[in-house]
Amino acid sequence: MKANRERVFGLAALAAIIFFVLGMAGNALAAERHYWIKAEEVQWDFMPSWPLNLMDGSDMTGDIFTDPNAFSGAKGRIYTKAAYRQYTEGFEQLIDGAFAPSREPGAPNEHMGITGPAIRAVVGDTIVVHFKNETSIDTSVHPHGVLYDKTGEGAPYIDNCNPGDPGCDPAGPGDVVPPGGEHIYVWGVPDRAGPGPNDASSIVWPYHAHTPETASTNAGLIGPIVIYRPNAVGFDASGAIVTRFREFFTLFTIFNENASALFDANFPNGVPKRVDPDEFEESNLMHGMNGLLWGNNTGYNMQAGEKVRWYIMAMGTEVDMHTAHWHGVTLLRNGHREDVTGIFPATTATLEMLTDNPGKWMFHCHVNDHLDAGMMTTFTIR
Questions:
Q1: Which residues neighbour 207 within 8 Å (Cβ) at sequence distance 6 or greater?
Q2: pTM above the 0.85 mark?
Q3: Domain 2-381: which topology?
């Protein structure tokens, strides 16, 4: 571990020198921002309110996606999944309390569901992620947008040798972290990782497992990285970032449990016999917002007149083309007025909401098939 720390700080120092030489160290308060993150397994409940539909009060008994008795072989709403979770230094104490389908009611991150913790940094900073894999599968952490070397990429492919050569290994340090393993990822935050000329004062990038990507992201290993302009935030006594606006995160994705790296954990005997294969596969497509259906993604609460920023992400396949719609309000995206915004797999959007209309409002994907399968919730302006 000592050798790892020495390598981390050596890389951080080198990154700082590079940023200075290239004229990218515009933040006089640049800092190393350390995050302690584990990948963990959980029995995830996509609809804790079942059988009550929180959107219209209906009874969801018989629903193909959430009722384990809908047909012979149905899994229902509870699956073994993997998620990134943030700890204090040294993995000593889980931040935001114990694992739960929704975080502690009223907590700032209550709405984030299965989505991993927000990794925050300011342009000019260095991000240091201390990662530990406590799942039963190989995994990694791959970031978008930030600056990394090959030890910080978290993606195994042949990039340092010729395919077929003796000893040619597609996995370098951090590309594959086995169960029980650890790795320290170091990512720089130059200007090109932060907001552009037409952006708001902060932008969001995804991070996710890439080992392999399809199976790992369907298992649940996805989270956001937020990068701020130096003049957009303050700092508390410990040096932690303090924003001047409320922040919400929403991951729109159809978790395909048929393609999850944890499929065997959910179906140890394989695909149940004497079931319709199409019905079985369809029942394992969970259309969620932060991994929650039918109004269970709670915690989007704000005050009228408050400055609010929404970070929207998507992940998945060709069916994961989402149109996020907020009722009752309008938002700005790169200076354009919207109440519906479109995103595609692995893309993001940052929007500023005008909180001028108090009420409890619907928030959902406007794609019909996704809407019908429960990709909806509410937000409240008090």
A1: 116, 119, 141, 142, 143, 144, 222, 223, 224, 225
A2: yes
A3: Immunoglobulin-like (2.60.40)
